[in-house]
Known about the structure:
Layout: E1 9-11, E2 14-16, E3 19-21, H1 31-39, E4 43-47, H2 51-59, H3 63-71, H4 87-104, E5 110-116, H5 124-137, E6 142-146, H6 153-156, E7 167-172, H7 175-185, E8 194-198, E9 204-205, H8 217-230, E10 237-240, H9 246-254, E11 260-262, H10 276-284, E12 290-293, E13 302-305, H11 333-344, H12 359-364, H13 395-404
Parallel strand pairs: 3-11, 4-5, 5-6, 6-7, 7-8, 8-10
Antiparallel strand pairs: 1-2, 9-13, 12-13
Helix pairs in contact: 1-4, 2-4, 4-5
The chain binds flavin mononucleotide.
Amino acid sequence: MKRVDDFRLRLGKHELVPIMIGGMGVDISSVDLAVEVARLGGVGHISDAMIKTVSDRRYKTKFVKEKLALYKYNVENEDKSAVKFDLGKLVEATRLHVEEAMSRKTGSGLIFINCMEKLTMNAPKETLKVRLEAAMDAGIEGITLAAGLHLGSFALIEEHPRFRDVQLGIIVSSVRALQLFLKKSMRTGRLPDYIVVEGPLAGGHLGFGMDWAQYDLATIVAEVIQFLKNEHLDIPVIPAGGIFTGSDATAFLESGAAAVQVATRFTVSEECGLPDKVKQEYFKASEDDIEVNQISPTGYPMRMIKSSPGIGDGIRPNCEAYGYLLDANGKCAYVTSYNRELALHPGVRKISVMDKTCLCTHMRNFDIWTCGYLTYRLKDTTRKAADGSYQLLTAEHIFKDYQFSTEQKIALPE
Ligand SMILES: Cc1cc2nc3c(=O)[nH]c(=O)nc-3n(C[C@H](O)[C@H](O)[C@H](O)COP(=O)(O)O)c2cc1C
């Protein structure tokens, strides 16, 4: 009987254990986690989501305070178009984070960064270019382009000296999205080095509508593999979303996938960036506690635990400090919803906003508990203590369980 360890992922000159841990913003897929996965021979991701606040927390910078001080005058203003990111500071924050990861890296694995196009940052092209180039300058080994179609992203960085040396991957949820991307990026004479195919059971934002349950990862992966074959394109395909056991992963590898991308099982690892008390919420969640809703201002459906403190919260928008979701015109759907509720409830001190959430503030504070569909199975991957709490796992334990287990077995910790 085959297991994941019988396969290898080839990326450039690298030969890897075919397990990639997906990017999880904001700093949920931490440097600690990525470094550990690289040591074990797989591919780890850090994320550049809200990089300045991550830098402040991790490297004692003061980027958020400085930005807020600069734009404080605008806090009560509905129009956020004046609130811009300082590109030099964006470079600095990205550099600090990537250098921390790369300087600690050991082993034969790789460390990539997850860059979401939907972080439009009130100047989508300029900020994305800076983010991608700064990560390459700081030595990142690969970039996974996520959350958005990224049709122009390759062209943004084609002049960079590392454009052809860094591993560049995309996340898609359909053949159609892949076709669009390939058509557009063909002009740069460079294809992606890998394609993550993310199905409807993933955590974070989904590349589907609210009809996500109609779709099935295995079917989409088969379509993508067939499409690439028809086009005579040899690009590794990496399925993601709901791959919970080594056997689940092996089934994909046997049907032509080059690796798998997984995330949910690592949310309860010691190395994961979530606070320990939030990790317990992930363990405790039952199937009914998890929903896909439309409260993300990005417009994409997002999966989360229903009791996330951020849901329904009517906090004043924090764009002067953060502002990662402001579009090219300085607009965010949460700001619109917040102002509507404010106008409807004059004089009320604490309003509630149900249809959208201030994703920046709540992700930064770990108050939106985004998760994969199979989060309710995490409790079966560990032991429960007498006080009702669940034992955290090491990333090594989870990684090796994926790598070596068979017959749908999940190894419990010592
Ligand atoms: C807590 C959490 C946060 C996530 N955040 C991101 C993100 O910032 N960017 C992204 O591209 N994918 C994100 N994802 C998706 C994962 O990278 C991954 O593709 C997917 O969750 C894999 O499915 P699994 O969780 O069922 O293993 C997130 C997933 C989780 C569980």
